[in-house]
Amino acid sequence: MAVELNESSFQSEVLESDVPVVVDFWAVWCGPCRMLTPTIEALAGEYEGKIKVAKVNVDENQQLAAKYGIMSIPTVMVFNEGKVAEQFIGVQPKGVYEDAVKKYI
């Protein structure tokens, strides 16, 4: 299951993580974000123990969204060793996210 992050937990959960982290920047009102949720949850289950999967609600964490230049949602970022390694804007097929993740595990 994807972990809900906020501005106070982002540092420890993402930037200091010893495994790659997939972060879904989303909002409750966003239809495409809701379409992406099953894919994000599937990644969390299938790669459990190899990666972390997290969600950031941009309405509740506006400073975090601004820090990472989130202009359109959903935006999915793959963090590796505390840095953005991959970024995807809009809903992508599950295989796109899997291919990105596999590079870092």
Biggest sheet descriptor: 5 strands, mixed
- Counting DSSP E segments of at least 2 residues, the number of strands comes to 5
Residue fraction in strands: 25-35%
Total helices: the number is: 4
Uncertain ranges: none
Task: Give the N-to-C terminal Cα separation.
Answer: 18 Å
Which class best fits the helix and strand makeup? alpha/beta
Strand order of the largest sheet: 1-3-2-4-5
The dominant shape is globular
- The SSE string, one letter per element, is EHEHEHEEH
Give average pLDDT, whole number.
97
Tell me the helix content: 25-40%
Spatial extent as radius of gyration:
12 Å
Written account of the structure:
35% of the residues lie in helices and 27% in strands. It is built from 4 helices and 5 strands; from the N terminus they run E-H-E-H-E-H-E-E-H. A 5-stranded mixed beta sheet has the order 1-3-2-4-5.
